Every structure is written in C-alpha cells, then in structure tokens.
Amino acid sequence: MSAQKNPTVAVSAPGKVLLAGGYLVLDRQHTGLVFGLSARINVIAGEIHTSEGVQLNEIIVDSPQFEGAQWRYGYHRAPEGGGIQVVQLQVGEELNKNPFVETTLSYVLSYVDHLYATRGSSSSSSSWLKPARLIILADNDYYSTPGDKQTAPNARFANFGVPLASANKTGLGSSAALVTALTASLLAHYLPKEMYALSSEGGPDDDNVVNAMFHQLMIKRGWHNLPEAARRQMDAYPPQKKWTLLHQDSKEILHNLAQAAHCAAQGKVGSGFDVAAAVFGSCLYRRFSPSVLDALPEPGTPAFASDLGRVVDGTAWDVEVSKKVDMPQGLALRMCDVDCGSQTVGMVKKVLAWREQEAQVAGDIWGELQAYNDGLASVLNENRTEDLTMSLEMIRGKIREMSGLSGVPIEPESQTKLLDALTELDGVFGGVVPGAGGFDALALLMRDDEETKTRVMGCLAEWSKEKDEKVKLMDVRGEMEGVRMEELDIYKGWL
Ligand SMILES: Nc1ncnc2c1ncn2[C@@H]1O[C@H](COP(=O)(O)OP(=O)(O)O)[C@@H](O)[C@H]1O
Ligand SMILES: C[C@@](O)(CCOP(=O)(O)OP(=O)(O)O)CC(=O)O
C-alpha cells in the first residue's frame, strides 16, 4: 500500500442559512431548520510532484482567489501518541495565520494516522503521510468585495484581488464549509476506498472487501450483538446496500471530525448547525451535547490521536439530523445581503443572559417559537404554500417579542419594514432575519421566476436609494445536497 499514489480529489461543501431556530438550536431540547446553500467551498487535494531526488515534507494550502493567501506547513509525528503536529512555515516577511486550515490539518492528519496505526498494514502505518497541495476555491457569494477590485468577476470563481482579511464576508458560513470540504478532501486523498467510503457510488470491485468493511461496521455499531436472524439478514444484504450504509457511516465520521476541528479552531462550541448543513445539506438539526468534545486534549499532547479517534468513531454523538425538509415546487429560498455598517456584537451572550434571568417568560417564548418553527417545516414539507405567509408572520411576531423583551435587535425595526415591504410583493411569500438575526441579512421564500426576481430587485433598489444603504439580492439559493465529490474539470485554469 505504501507505494500507492494518492489520488487527486475534489470535494465541495455548501454554506448555510438557519431559517428558523436561531438561539433555540443552542439547546438540545430544541431544533433548527437549516438550509444548505448553492454557494459552496471547494477543496482540491493532490500530491506534490518534486523532481527526482528532491524531498519536500510540506503541505501547501492555496486560496488563489485572494492576495497572499498561501499557507505552508511542515509536519511531524508528536511523541507519546500526540498525533501529527503541523507547524506553519514562514513564507514572506509576516506569518499570515489561518487557524481554520491549521487546526483542521492537525485534526484530520492525526485521525488518519490513528486509523492506519489501528487498521492499516505495518508498512502503511508509518509511510502514509506524503506531501500534498490543497487548493481552496469559494463561490463568489461568500464575499461582497467591490467588483472593481475583481478580475474576471463573472467567472464561477472570481479573483477578488484583495487579501482574505479585507474581503467582506456575507455570513454564509465560510469557515464551516471550508473545514468540512478540507476534512473530506484529506480523508479521500489519504485513505483508500477500503478504509473510507466518501463516494456514494461504486465501492471496491471486490465484494469480499465490501463484506469485510461491513463486518467492521457491524462491530462498531454493535449490530453483531443482534439476534442471529437479524444478523444473518444483514450479512445477506447486497453489496450496494452495504456500501450505502458504509457511505452513511463515512459521512458521520466526517461530521464528527469536522465539528471537533471547527470548534477547536473557533475556540468555542456553538450549536454546530453550520457544519451539519455543510455535511448533510438542508435538515432539521438537533445539536450534539457539548460534553462529547470535553475529553479531547490539545493536538500534540500525549494520547491526542487515540482520544480523537475514540471521540470521532464513538457512539456518544447524540446529534440528530432529519432530512425531512423540503422546498415546495417552484419556490426558492433566496438571501439578501444588507450592507448597513451596524454591528451587533455579543447578541448571543445578551439573549442567553436575558433568558437566564427571565427563565419563565423566555421558556414560554422558546416553546411557542419551537411550535411555530415545526409548523413552518410542515408547511414546506407538505407543499402548503397557502399557509406559508401566515407561518412566517407568526415566527416573526414571536421573534419581535423576544427582541423587545431581551433588548437585543434580533429583528430590528429597519428589517421589519423591509420584510413587510417585500412580503407585499406578488410572488413573495415572506421572509425572516435568519440565524442570530440583526441588521445584515434577510432570507426570503419566493416564487422561483424572473418576474418575482425583478420585482424584488426593484423593491430593494428603491429601498437602498431611500435609506442610503445597500441591500441586494444575492445569487445564492437554498439547496438540499450536502458535501459531495466533484469532477476536476470544473476547476480549469485554477489547478
Ligand atoms: N476562501 C477561503 N480561503 C481560506 N480560508 C478561508 C476562506 N474562507 C474562509 N476562510 C477561513 O474562515 C475564516 C472566516 O470564518 P468566520 O469568521 O467564522 O466566518 P464565517 O461566518 O463565514 O464562517 C477566515 O478567517 C479563514 O480562516
Ligand atoms: C444564535 C445561533 O443559534 C445562530 C447563529 O447563526 P448565524 O447564521 O447568525 O451565525 P454565524 O454562525 O455567526 O454565521 C448560534 C448557534 O447556533 O451557534
């Protein structure tokens, strides 16, 4: 296995919008209605080819749409099972850090090292880690950098012409999509199909290999303890069905590993709905208990690799992802970017502090809002467009009550007026302030046709002129699919 060439793979993961369940989703008692978005972050992972005799022990990460966006890392195996530590190498005069990239590399490489050590052959376990080059390409809607700086702004991937730190984020969840796509691309690059089933199709040609992999999965899930008849039935599944179950397990591993890396890079444990959307796409999401990640030591410290392996492969993950989420035919979820300069710092902290103080009142609102959010999920699932406007209005009413009582501008007055004006338009069913709310974004549910789009754009243009703030309809729309492998030819000119 050691002489094997690691394949060049490309993976993309979608951005997110939390249509309903902001704040509630932080609590396992409640759920969030999350949509994946058509804006994706792509990562292409390939080997580095050096001239004969030249040895380069580096992982190079490029984000070529931005200026100076290259990060180079050396790596080594830390003593006492501390996993693979990566150390950034200085390229120019300054050390330009990217904590999401660096943390993800150390987490994923340590996880892969643990897998080879426990399941690989003795030759593969020490020699699997080879130099690699990773290229990040983000769909344009993640950033609202002025068009005059961009070269080829109409290309699928624009060249933004500025450093990443000066690009204005539009709040679509770039770090979660990046961590997920990076994690998946590294797993697919370094692990053979016999150890990791990221692709939903195919699987190894040899049925015996699939059977052996499935046997491992049965042990992991405790299915081997099922009554004899049930076990036999599973053993007799056709290879394609076994592969589908292996693929689902691989997605769960990806989710767990990406959540762990994203939390570590962020330095906090949020609800994780953004990583869940990046992996699974649109879903009803119930968060994992934060205690799942409690026992993890720092990368590089003793036993990090085996502890990470135990956490990622373990059964303590109580996250629930239900795919019973749909969009009625002919409708689209669209996003508006509001460029207003108002910042709402610390909104989550303030809302939670108020909730603690006013437990009774807040508890009632949380309960009512959950019921309205569930109502919205049913309206969408059951194609009841006639109830959609009312369902969105009820949610907004409760959110305004929350805003008023907590003193936090979750749906500020300016957004109320804009949402009301948009809801009046023919073809617009309504909208919400997504996620934590505030001044900077709106999500709309509208008919997916040119006439409606023109009316919405007209209304936003008028609003922008009147209020002297820029509001625009983004190209991005809600999409069901989560992480997926991509063909390399869509990245022509960038590789
Ligand atoms: N195209 C990209 N290339 C490299 N890193 C990126 C890219 N987009 C986002 N990131 C990483 O994600 C960080 C932004 O994450 P964060 O502030 O959590 O915003 P978001 O809400 O979009 O996730 C950046 O500082 C960078 O580390
Ligand atoms: C308050 C929240 O429930 C939702 C926040 O959603 P946003 O989409 O507003 O936030 P970012 O993660 O900053 O992009 C916090 C959480 O669930 O972690």
UniProtKB/TrEMBL annotation:
User: What keywords tag this UniProt record?
Assistant: ATP-binding, Kinase, Lipid biosynthesis, Lipid metabolism, Nucleotide-binding, Steroid biosynthesis, Steroid metabolism, Sterol biosynthesis, Sterol metabolism, Transferase
User: What GO molecular function terms would the record report?
Assistant: actin binding; ATP binding; phosphomevalonate kinase activity; small GTPase binding
Its recorded reaction(s) are: (R)-5-phosphomevalonate + ATP = (R)-5-diphosphomevalonate + ADP
Q: Which GO cellular component terms are attached?
A: peroxisome
The record's listing under Pfam families reads: Drf_GBD
Q: EC?
A: 2.7.4.2
Which pathway or pathways does this protein act in? Isoprenoid biosynthesis; isopentenyl diphosphate biosynthesis via mevalonate pathway; isopentenyl diphosphate from (R)-mevalonate: step 2/3
Q: Identify the residues that the record assigns to the Formin GTPase-binding domain, covering every copy.
A: 205-252
Which leading EC class covers this enzyme? transferase
- Output the GO biological process annotations, alphabetical, semicolon-separated: actin cytoskeleton organization; ergosterol biosynthetic process; farnesyl diphosphate biosynthetic process, mevalonate pathway; isopentenyl diphosphate biosynthetic process, mevalonate pathway
- InterPro entries, sorted: Erg8, GHMP_kinase_C_sf, GTPase-bd, Phosphomevalonate_kinase, Ribosomal_Su5_D2-typ_SF, Ribsml_uS5_D2-typ_fold_subgr
Family listed: Belongs to the GHMP kinase family. Mevalonate kinase subfamily.
Q: What is this protein called?
A: Phosphomevalonate kinase
Q: Name the source organism.
A: Emericellopsis cladophorae
